């Protein structure tokens, strides 16, 4: 009887040890990202590819850049995230705040100098452009808006959405794109603030999270957004949508990878970084209708579905360091003058 009891105890201990080992192994094959939304930039597909090719699970995370940054700051002493996917301005700020671990992944040298930190504290993985993501069915017989000023016309009352510029990177870059297009500078935000105040008469829909589905459903007929979302709607979901580059001009939308300081799963996070800059990873972004930071990895078919290169040439060139420095003052001005 005693031997049987002891045997059961030994077996239970072995089972527990095995469960702990399996749990530990599963944990070791997990990498935590902040701001990897399923419907944004086709992260859902990319992370499934990471799981298939590397055996590493990266859970979907729906934070925007600002929310991710706030969480990384809050967890600085005990980090949870291994990496963040951030708009370039947030990435630059993360390095300045000591929140990042430098890492130069494979193909790092292919990235243009202005789209990476020299030491690898952050590096761009893909980009797009700001413009109008429009559901033509929801717009009905109304003409397509072709300029920033068009959005102020009474005929678009209740039909226009934009991202809050104090939180999401796409919101800030959209606001600054409009500001520069209307005569502002990286120091003078008056044109943007005047626009935000004027568009209140049109009852705009102000959003914080990815609103791709809301455009496809027609809930938001016109959203100031990135071209890659419009292309996804057109080519993947076969929706009657279009992307319009504003006549007055616009800005690029670069997104970057930052490895958090003291990342809990550092070695696996490095593998994910290598993958995202590999030929296959970069081709995955292109197939998701984004411009990979390494264009050589993009197929002709994928390139043909992107917004024409000639139109991208109309995007304004800016100093991303100064652009990052202007982000907080811009947000503060919006809070004081508009909200």
| CATH level-four homologous superfamily name of the largest domain | Periplasmic binding protein-like II
Low-confidence stretches are: 1-7, 9-27
Terminal residue distance: 75 Å
So what's the CATH class of the largest domain?
Alpha Beta
Gyration radius, in Å? 22 Å
Global morphology: globular
What is the beta-strand fraction? 5-15%
CATH topology grouping of the largest domain: D-Maltodextrin-Binding Protein, domain 2
Q: Summarize the amount of helix as a percent range.
A: 40-55%
H-E string: HEHHEHEHEHHEHEHEEHHEHHHH
User: How is the biggest beta sheet arranged?
Assistant: 9 strands, mixed
Derived from helix and strand composition plus strand pairing, the structural class reads alpha/beta
Overall mean pLDDT stands at 91
Q: Quickly give the CATH architecture of the largest domain.
A: 3-Layer(aba) Sandwich
Q: Count of helices?
A: 15
Work out the count of structural domains.
2
**Total strand segments:** 9
How would you portray this structure in words?
- Helices cover 43% and strands 14% of the residues.
- Helix 6 packs across helix 7.
- Strands 1, 2, 3, 4, 5, 6, 7, 8 and 9 form a nine-stranded mixed beta sheet that branches.
- The protein has 339 residues and is of the alpha/beta class.
- The protein is globular, with a radius of gyration of 22 Å.
- The chain is built from 15 helices and nine strands.
- The chain has two domains: 32-127 and 253-312, D-Maltodextrin-Binding Protein, domain 2, CATH 3.40.190; 128-251 and 316-337, D-Maltodextrin-Binding Protein, domain 2.
- The chain starts with a helix and ends with a helix.
């Amino acid at each position: 009887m005693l031997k049987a009891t002891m045997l059961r105890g030994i077996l239970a201990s072995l089972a527990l040890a095995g469960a702990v080992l399996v749990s530990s192994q599963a944990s070791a094959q997990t990498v935590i990202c902040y701001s990897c939304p399923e419907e944004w930039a086709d992260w859902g597909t990319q992370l499934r590819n990471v799981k298939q090719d590397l055996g590493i699970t990266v859970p979907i995370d729906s934070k925007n850049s600002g929310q991710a940054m706030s969480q990384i700051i809050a967890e600085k002493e005990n980090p949870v995230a291994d990496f963040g996917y951030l708009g370039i301005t947030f990435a630059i700020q993360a390095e300045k705040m000591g929140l990042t671990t430098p890492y130069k992944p494979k193909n790092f040298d292919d990235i243009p100098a202005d789209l990476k930190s020299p030491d690898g504290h952050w590096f761009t993985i893909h980009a797009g452009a700001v413009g109008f993501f429009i559901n033509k069915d929801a717009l009905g017989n109304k003409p397509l808006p072709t300029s920033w000023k068009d959005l102020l016309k009474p005929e678009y009352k209740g039909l226009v959405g934009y991202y809050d510029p104090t939180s999401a990177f796409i919101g800030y870059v959209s606001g600054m794109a409009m500001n520069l297009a209307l005569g502002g500078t990286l120091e003078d935000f008056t044109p943007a603030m005047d626009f935000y105040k004027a568009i209140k008469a049109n009852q705009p829909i102000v959003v914080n999270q990815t609103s791709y589905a809301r455009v496809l459903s027609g809930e938001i007929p016109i959203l100031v957004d990135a071209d890659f979302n419009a292309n996804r709607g057109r080519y993947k979901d076969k929706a009657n949508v279009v992307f319009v580059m504003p006549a007055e001009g616009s800005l690029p939308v670069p997104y970057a990878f930052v490895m958090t300081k003291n990342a809990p799963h550092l070695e696996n996070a490095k593998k994910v970084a290598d993958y995202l800059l590999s030929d296959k990873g970069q081709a995955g972004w292109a197939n998701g209708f984004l411009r990979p930071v390494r264009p050589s990895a993009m197929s002709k078919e994928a390139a043909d579905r992107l917004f024409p290169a000639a139109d991208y040439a109309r995007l304004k060139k800016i100093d991303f360091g100064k652009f990052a420095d202007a982000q907080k003052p811009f947000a503060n001005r919006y809070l004081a003058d508009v909200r």
